[in-house]
Amino acid sequence: MVIHALTTGHVRVKHKFLFPSAGARRQLDLFLADAWSDPLPIHCWAIEHDGRVVLVDSGETATARNVPFARFEVMREQELPAALKAVDLSLDDVAKVVLTHHHGDHVDGLVHVRAPVLIGEAELRFVASAFPRVMRRILRQPLPPGFAPQPFALDAGRFGEFPHSRALTDDGRIVAVATPGHTPGHISVICVDDSGRHVMLAGDVTDSLEQLHARRADAIGPDPKAHVATLETVLAHCAKHATVYLPSHDPQSAARLAGSITVA
């Protein structure tokens, strides 16, 4: 198994996005003046395994619109086709795409994809509900044209410390697990590498490893308590299984992947 970090540009976010206030100010602060972060990577992931390539998320495109709390820095030559070419892969190699959640910086690259696209059924239900539909309109963040992923259920029971899971390959070495918080239907993908380590492609479970250790809910998720419960589950899993933890926007994720650095 080989896992590649694909970088499809960068994003700057407000300080209060990364370190939100408690209580009523948690989301309000996103729309107020604030300092901006350094550029953060927009990663998606290509997994080469058993003669196939599974893509986890699809990254961002140069057409991304800024929102009050995020400024995108994506050039056309950084989009998914070029990111795959940089690791000697192409769109034709991709057998399927698994989405961690529906936000644009994880799904907009689907405009390039011809392979089947999968998403957790809980996330697809959330996509169709009133609040995210209204927010997509207000923020001018439409879903990509032709967005019609196939839903799958996390109906295979426990995987490690995660109570809900679904194997994505016949050998069970690529597994989707429920990680609600950033969105209610958010999932992560865990790969069991050739050394038996768990490589957790964590989407937006957190923005960084530091946030995981701090057990800090983000400013986006609708239910901070549910988010913190997920972080506790992730940490419990890491305590029992050597796990390389890879959030999509952590500047250190690519280095941790390259060095197989597990969560202490």
3D structure, described in words:
The chain has 264 residues and is α/β, with parallel strands linked by helices. The protein has a single domain, classed as Metallo-beta-lactamase, Chain A (4-Layer Sandwich). It is 25% helix and 25% strand. It has a 7-stranded mixed beta sheet with strand order 4-1-2-3-5-6-7. The model has no long low-confidence stretch (mean pLDDT 96).
What's the SSE blueprint?
Elements: E1 2-13, H1 15-18, H2 25-28, E2 40-49, E3 52-56, E4 70-73, H3 80-85, E5 94-99, H4 104-107, E6 117-120, H5 121-128, H6 130-138, E7 150-152, E8 165-167, E9 174-178, E10 187-192, E11 198-201, H7 209-214, H8 224-240, E12 243-246, H9 253-259
Parallel strand pairs: 3-5, 5-6, 6-7, 11-12
Antiparallel strand pairs: 1-2, 1-4, 2-3, 8-9, 9-10, 10-11
